Amino acid sequence: MTALFSKIFISPLYKGQILCRSHQDCDNNALTQQAFLNNLDQKLWSAAEFKSWFIDFDPVRAKATAFADSLSPAQAERAALSLISSKNPAELDRLRIDYPDQYQQLLALAQAFPSEFEEVEGFGDVSRGWVVKKIEDVIKKILVSKKYNQKTTFSESLVPVLDQGKSDIIGYHNDKAGVKVSIENPVIVFANHTCYMRLISYDFSAIQNVFAFRGEETDIYWTYLATYGKQGLTEYKGHFPDFLIKEIVVPSVELTELFGQVVKESFSKIAINDIENSFLAKTRDELLPKLLSGEV
């Protein structure tokens, strides 16, 4: 883009039009930011639902209460479904008629939850059949081939190199990406020392002490939410080995997959908006200085 603009002469008459267009682009960017915030709300919803379902065991509690009240298995499932969907019986009936696929998806999720608890040392009452595992026994580490540093990257190129901090990207390179991923198949990235964790949905490489992983069997979105928050800092830094030995309560693989189906769209939208926002920010940073300096 820089080379392109350096070869184009734009008359003063059109500069105003370009500036106007840049304001329109900013307006469009504002709309994109709003869409991102909306999707962020969905992500927060996903985290809240995860806590309710897999930490507080609310669907299991709803089923157990229904059975304690001498209700039938179908009524117990209905109670869990009502809790999961945040809908009353009349709203559930409308959902079943108007959106049968969505209803069946939520029903399958409700059916997959147990209806009883069992006591697990150190965790108290846990959904029956669920197991306590160390994170290292739940995840599958992904090899990030060649490692880069600030001296071996460029300010612009093809493949981003992930940093340890919240700045995300330290630079770029022209080689083969260390990890190939996509919006449909993201990975979780953990930064040593800073303990910064995020989902990545684009091809990347990394510096030293940046690790990538997925669930060994569990759904990627369930795995992300189950392990997020377990990477707390000790004093001034944290380490991946300390993170790996933390324990989490793990349900059936089927249940993690059903949960992933429910939240996948929200996470995918956020990933798309992240990519679009990065492109718009780069375009703005390249174009506006030229407009303001009179180069174009």
Write the topology of this structure.
Elements lengths: L1 H5 L5 H44 L2 H11 L4 H13 L3 H10 L1 H13 L4 E4 L3 E4 L3 E4 L4 E4 L4 E2 L10 E4 L6 E5 L13 E5 L5 E4 L4 E3 L2 E6 L4 H8 L12 H5 L2 E4 L2 H41 L3
Parallel strand pairs: 5-10, 6-10
Antiparallel strand pairs: 1-2, 3-12, 4-11, 6-7, 8-9, 8-11
Helix pairs in contact: 2-9, 3-4, 4-6, 5-6, 6-9, 7-9
Description of the structure:
One of its GO terms (molecular function) is DNA binding. One of its GO terms (biological process) is DNA restriction-modification system. InterPro entries: Restrct_endonuc_typeI_TRD_sf. Keywords: DNA-binding, Restriction system. This is Type I restriction modification DNA specificity domain-containing protein. This protein has 296 residues and is α+β, with helices and mostly antiparallel strands. Among the domains are: 50-128, no CATH class; 135-250, Adenine-n6-DNA-methyltransferase TaqI, Chain A, domain 2. The protein is 51% helix and 17% strand. The chain is built from 9 helices and 12 strands. Strands 4-11-8-9 form a 4-stranded antiparallel sheet. It has a 4-stranded mixed sheet with strand order 5-10-6-7, with no helix packed on it. Strands 1-2 form a two-stranded antiparallel sheet. A hairpin with a 3-residue loop joins strand 1 and strand 2 (124-127). Helix 2 (12-55) runs antiparallel to helix 9, helix 5 crosses helix 6 and helix 7 packs across helix 9. Mean pLDDT is 82; it is low at 1-23.
